[in-house]
Write a structure and sequence with these properties.
mainly alpha; 5 helices; transmembrane; flat; DUF6328; 0% strand; membrane; Sodium:proton antiporter; 199 residues; transmembrane helix
């Protein structure tokens, strides 16, 4: 009887171990299925499906849109207020032309920043979240590029009106260079270093 009971217990333990191993293998298989080829970078840190990742990326896009829209709204308000100042009529024709270019850039950046929101609303419940996230990424990069030119142009315009001479070109060029370094070169350098360490 004791031997039969021991055999039964050992069989039960073996069966339990097999079930646990199957469950572990199933979990690992499910995890591998949840991570696609374009999600390899996130594999060590996240366990999410493609749809979950799209939702997370869309939330990040919306947060970046809020930051970008705040800056463009301030610049647009500043530029629109200038046209109604008494001294605006005394500006030279070239400066008025630059002003109109800046207004156009400000409006274009706002349109690009709002494009992902409009696409999300039009494609609501169409199962195109990942496509909307990709389009939002492209629109944000384009809007950031325009905003960098807009910032440099506004600073150059103000320096030109206040000081004159080559001060506008110098101030605008310096700000544009700073934007290129902090917005492009630094992030690209960080990405390159991280990839080299991963290899």
């Amino acid at each position: 009887m004791r031997g039969a009971r021991e055999d039964h217990d050992s069989g039960t333990a073996s069966a339990s171990g097999s079930i646990a191993a199957c469950e572990t293998d199933g979990d690992e298989s499910q995890y591998r299925q949840r991570v696609t080829d374009d999600e390899v970078a996130d594999q060590p840190r996240r366990n999410e499906t493609a749809d979950e990742r799209a939702d997370r990326n869309w939330t990040e896009v919306l947060q970046e849109l809020r930051v970008l829209q705040t800056g463009t709204q301030i610049l647009t308000g500043f530029l629109l207020a200038l046209a109604f100042q008494p001294a605006f009529a005394d500006l030279a024709l070239g400066r008025k032309g630059l002003y109109l270019v800046l207004i156009a850039l400000s409006a274009l950046s706002s349109v690009l920043a709002l494009a992902p929101v409009a696409a999300h609303r039009v494609l609501f419940r169409a199962g195109a979240k990942r496509s909307v996230v990709t389009a939002g990424h492209v629109c944000l990069i384009a809007a950031l590029a325009i905003v960098s030119v807009l910032l440099a142009g506004v600073v150059g315009f103000v320096f030109d009106v206040v000081i004159g001479g080559a001060s506008g070109w110098i101030a605008g060029s310096v700000l544009a260079a700073i934007a290129v370094v902090t917005w492009v070169l630094v992030p690209v350098t960080v990405r390159t270093v991280r990839r080299k360490r991963a290899d």
